[in-house]
Every structure is written in C-alpha cells, then in structure tokens.
Design a protein that fits this description.
The chain has 502 residues and is an alpha/beta fold. It has 23 helices and 7 strands. The strands form 2 sheets. The chain has a 5-stranded mixed sheet with strand order 4-1-5-7-6. Strands 2-3 form a two-stranded antiparallel sheet. Helix 6 packs across helix 16. It starts with 9 loop residues before the first helix and ends with a strand. The model has no long low-confidence stretch (mean pLDDT 92). It is a multi-pass membrane protein.
Length: 502
C-alpha cells in the first residue's frame, strides 16, 4: 500500500543525516541573510497588534481586526517580549522556515527513500519563494511547516499504528489550522487520501480529526468577524488578480521557482528558469528511456504515496480556484499556494532521484543551481524596502530643529503604531516626522517654519527622477535645496534626501 520506503544500511543513514544537516545549515544561512531586511507592509500591521499589548488585548485585536487565526500572532507576541527590535516578531517564521528543510527530508525519506528526501530538502533550502516567507513575520512559513509535520506524522501513524503518533498528528493538524485557514486544504487532502488508501484505518483517521475540529469550535465565536474581514480582502485581491489563465499560471510559477512580489523574468531570470527546466527535462527524458528499456527506478515510490503528494500539491490551488469562482472575490496570490510547495518539491525530487547517479547529479544540480540563482538575486537585489537603513542614515545626521517627511506610506503599509519608517527611527527624528499621506502639503508647510534641515524618505520607481508622491509646493522648493542623498536597492528603491535652507 505504500507509505514505507526501502530499508537502508546504518552507514548510509548516518551519511544521509550529515547531508541533511549540511543542507539545513545552508538554508538557515540564506534565511538569516534575508532577515536583515526591514519589516514592511503587512508585518507593520502584525507588529502593531502585538507590540506593547497585553496578551488579552492582542487576542481581542486579532479577533476583530484580522483575517487569520491566532497562533502566529501568539508566537509573534511572545517573541516581541524578548527585546525592542521590531524584527523579533520574525523569530517564529525563521524557526519554521529552517525546520521545514529537515521535515521535508524526513517526509521524502518515508515516502520514497533517502535520495528523494535529500533532493527535496535541497530544493526547499534554496527556494527563493520559501526563503522570502521564512523572513516574513506573518504566519505563512509557520503554516507550511506545521502542515508538513502533520503529513509526516500521519504517514508514520498509518505505518506504525501507535496512539502517540495519532495524537501528535491530531495536535499538529489543529495547530496548522489555527495558524492559517489555507491549511484546511492540506488537512482535508490528508484525510481524504488516508481514507481512500487505508480504509482499514478509518476509525483512527476519523478520530484524529478531533484536534482540528475542536480548535475550530473553540475559535468559532470569532470566526464570523474574521470571515467578514477576509471577504473585504478577497474583494481587494479580485481587483488586482481576478480569475483568468494568466493570473493562475503566474502564481503557480512564482510559488514554484520565483518570488511572490516580482516577475519570473527578474527572479530567477531567464538563466535560472532555464536551468530548472533543463534539469527537469533531463530527468523526464531519462525516465522515458528507462521505461522503454524496462529498467526499474532506483528509488521507486509506491502509487499511494505519489497520490498523496499529488493531492497535497493540488489541494491549495483547488481551494484558491474555488474561492475565486465567487463573484468579485479572488485568492489568486502566490502566498496562498505556499502549503503546496513542499509536496511539489517532493514530486520533483521523486523524478530526479529515480534515475541513475549521473542523471541525478546533473538534473538535481541544474534545478538546484537555477533556484539558488533566484535566491541570490533575491538577497542581493530584491530585498524589502530598506526603511531601517534609511532610518539609521537619518539618525546619524539629524539634529534638533530638523524635520523628517515620510513618503513611504503606501496602501496597506501603515499600521496603527506608525509607518515602517517611524517604527525604526530613533526618538528625536520620530518626534519630527510627518507622514505625507496624512499631512498633504502641510508636511512641507511645517518645515517652512523651521530653520533646520528637512529629510525626505520615499520609494523610487525605475527610471523615475524622484520618489513616489514627491511634489513639494513652489514656496518650499524655492527655499530648500538638496545637499545629501542615499539610496538602497530592493523591490522598490528606497531613497533618503536631505534638504538645507538656501
């Protein structure tokens, strides 16, 4: 019936564990490099809900203001107690993002064998999509790690039948559901596959659903408000990503080989995408040739196990498409497919690992290099806006009497505690800060009343000569001239300008 891979020697097991550890360390380094990014966009809202709040107040805000369940906020709240840096709220995502690598390795080993598990871990470690969300404070990384861990425990429980494994699976399924509602697709897929593939275990499978069902019942009093909040979000997504073939194919491509917020042409680029496609094609051709010649795969995966991965890879997409069929609603953002990525990586790894050593080394090397190229581009050129670096640069030059104008407050990027820039400024510059979207021309008018300098921070698009929203009135422009400038690359360029009196 599947589930269990071939046994291997103790020596090979030790080498496999060493290899997985090395891959995990490499993935951890990439994620720690990414963690240097400033908090941005939705992270600012999360920080506003947890920072300086009591536990009860935080839970109330999540229940009435948010659209996702509370586990990620609870863990972010705990992390925020460790110090004053806003980036502390990313600790749960970082831990989950690193933990996902050995979890995928262990699941691949259970389903297909050691080579399958190791190759899948390698793909997950260098995935630019997963690296990005491993340093995103929202609960996407936590959800995908919990879903993968629950799948691993389900497979183990079906094989061994231990009550402890069934109980642990039920608990992890509940935690996954309480981290993000998109986990429902994976949990439903797990249960349906298990019932179809292991009908003799029907009683244990059904009893194990008590965990997520109980969690949903406990959270039920707050669910309606969150559903209403989610409905507003789905309408906003529909305005920018309605249901059509182009948007569906785009989010699939971004989740598998790219980045959620930029084009595949930019990341991983033509070279990166080409390497991935050539690597997969080589393994696919080798598979066809071996089938024609009657050669058995090196690490055969049972059909039920393959069906499990297919179900888990398609279930999140099916959920997104189902919701997007509703008039005026859409779930077509790449982040909503994150729970499908481990299963997709395992399917690709199954293909790569099933051929001979030469094909494995060449094909896996090409695919890994293509994904790693995307991650290098992400960490070097496609960072989140560098508001933290801009805040540090201003703090080193700011003096009493100077003022700061914030042009960075784009839609959705401003939390109740202030903008991303405000959260990272020191006390003096923060007190002199005016946000343009709130103050309009008064932001410039206030600076006309001071004899000090004015610092302006904003986002600048490619080939533009000034930041977005930079439009000072004539009286201001004739009085000040620019005396200093800094810029930082990223998804959008962050610029800081200093103006002095003429």
């Amino acid at each position: 019936m599947g589930v269990t891979a071939q046994p291997v020697s103790r020596w090979r097991t030790r080498n496999w564990r060493v290899s997985v550890t090395a891959v995990t360390l490499a993935g951890a380094i990439a994620r720690l490099v990414g963690d240097r990014d400033s908090i941005a966009w939705d992270e600012v809202y999360l920080y506003s809900w947890v920072h300086g709040k009591g536990f009860g107040q935080m839970m109330h805000l999540v229940a009435v203001k948010e659209k996702t369940p509370p586990l990620g906020f609870v863990l972010a709240w705990i992390s925020d107690q460790l110090g004053s840096s806003p980036s502390l709220i990313r600790i749960p995502s970082l831990i989950a993002g690193v933990a996902l690598i050995p979890l995928v390795a262990a699941l691949g080993r259970r389903l297909g064998g050691q080579r399958t598990g190791l190759v899948a871990a390698l793909l997950v470690a260098v995935s630019p999509f997963l690296v990005f969300y491993s340093v995103e404070a929202r609960s996407y990384s936590l959800t995908v790690a919990l879903c993968t861990a629950s799948t691993l425990l389900l497979v183990r429980a079906l094989k061994d039948g231990r009550r402890a494994d069934w109980a642990a699976y039920s608990l992890l399924a509940a935690l996954a559901l309480m981290s993000h509602y998109t986990a429902f697709a994976v949990l439903a897929g797990q249960a349906l596959w298990a019932l179809a593939a292991f009908p003799r275990n029907r009683k244990s499978i059904l009893l194990s659903q008590a965990g997520p069902v109980l969690a949903a019942v406990i959270w039920l009093p707050w669910l309606k408000q969150q559903v209403d909040n989610s409905s507003d979000e789905l309408h906003r997504i529909a305005a920018i990503s309605p249901l059509d073939f182009g948007n569906v194919s785009a989010i699939i491509g971004h989740s598998l080989v790219g980045h959620p917020l930029t084009s595949i042409a930019r990341l991983p680029g033509q070279w990166g995408l080409g390497l991935v496609l050539v690597g997969v094609a080589i393994a696919a051709v080798a598979l066809v040739v071996d089938r024609v010649r009657g050669r058995a795969p090196r690490e055969p995966m049972g059909r039920p196990n393959i069906w499990l991965l297919v179900v888990l890879a398609l279930a999140p997409l099916a959920l997104a498409l189902g919701v997007s069929l509703q008039p005026g609603q859409s779930m077509l953002l790449a982040r909503n497919l994150i729970t499908a990525v481990p299963a997709a990586a395992l399917l690709v790894a199954t293909l790569l690992a099933s051929r001979g050593k030469a094909v494995l080394l060449i094909s896996a090397g090409l695919v890994t290099t293509g994904l790693a190229l995307g991650t290098v581009i992400e960490l070097r050129d496609v960072q989140r806006p560098a508001t933290g670096a801009a805040a540090d640069a201003i703090a080193s030059r700011w003096k009493p009497g100077d003022r700061v104008i914030d042009l960075c407050c784009l839609s959705g990027g401003d939390g109740p505690l202030g903008t991303a820039l405000a959260l990272q400024l020191t006390k003096g510059p923060r007190a002199s800060l005016t946000v343009l979207s709130r103050g309009g021309d008064s932001a410039y008018a206030a600076s006309l009343k001071t004899n000090g300098r004015v610092f302006i921070v904003g986002y600048q698009l490619p080939r533009a000569s000034a930041p977005i929203f930079y439009a000072p009135p004539k009286a201001w422009a004739t009085r000040f001239h620019r005396t200093w400038a800094r810029e930082w690359p990223g998804l959008v360029k962050t610029v800081a300008w200093e103006f002095s009196q003429r």
